[in-house]
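Following up on my earlier thread - several people asked me to post the actual chain instead of describing it. Fair enough. Here it is, all 194 residues.
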Amino acid sequence: MSVGGWSWSIWKEGESEILQTSRSNVKYTAASWSLTRPGVFYIGKEDGNIDVWDLMDRSHEPSMSQNISSSAVTSLVPYRVSSKQVLLGVGDNFGTLHILEVPWSLRQASPNELHAMSSYFDRECSRIDYYKERDANRDTAVADSAPQIPTALETSEEEEDRLKKSFNNYLNMEKEFLVKLGLKREDDPVELLH
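Reply from S.P.:
Thanks for posting it. Predicted structure:
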C-alpha cells in the first residue's frame, strides 16, 4: 500500500496498482493494515481524521471516519494486546499519541475472509490485465488502419509512378466489379496509364 498526496493505492508485487482512490480534497498522510483482518486498513489524513476501510463491506468508500485530532495524523500503528483486544496508536503533528480500541467488528475476521480478499485482488488483477490487453489491441488496430505516410520525401517522378500504379489498380478493381455485375465482359480491355 502506498499513501501520499491526495490518493492512496494498493499494489500487488510484480503488478501495477490494483486499487486506487480518486483524488481527495484532503491529503492522505499515513496508512496501516489491520493485524487481524486482511480486508481492513486505516488511512490517516491531514485534517486529523482516520478513514477505516473494510473491503469486505465496500470498496468505493470508507466504512467509517473518525476525527482524532485538529492536526495531521502522522502515524498509525496497530497493536494486538490479546485475541480480544486490539489497539490502534495514532500520532499527530503536535506529537500527541492517541490510543484507540478497535471494535470487535473490525478485529474479528470472518472464516473465509482471507480467501475472499485473495480472490478479490486476483479478480482486480485479471480485470486490469484485460483492460491493458484491450487498450493494446485498440492501439494496434488504430495504427493498422491509419493511412501509410511515406517515410522519405518522394521525387516528382516517384510520386507520379506511385499515383499511376494506384490509379491502374483502381481501374482493374473497377473492371472486376463490372464483370461481376455483368456490365462488362472478361475480355474487354482496360485502358491503363503508362
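The mean pLDDT is 89. That should answer part of your original question.
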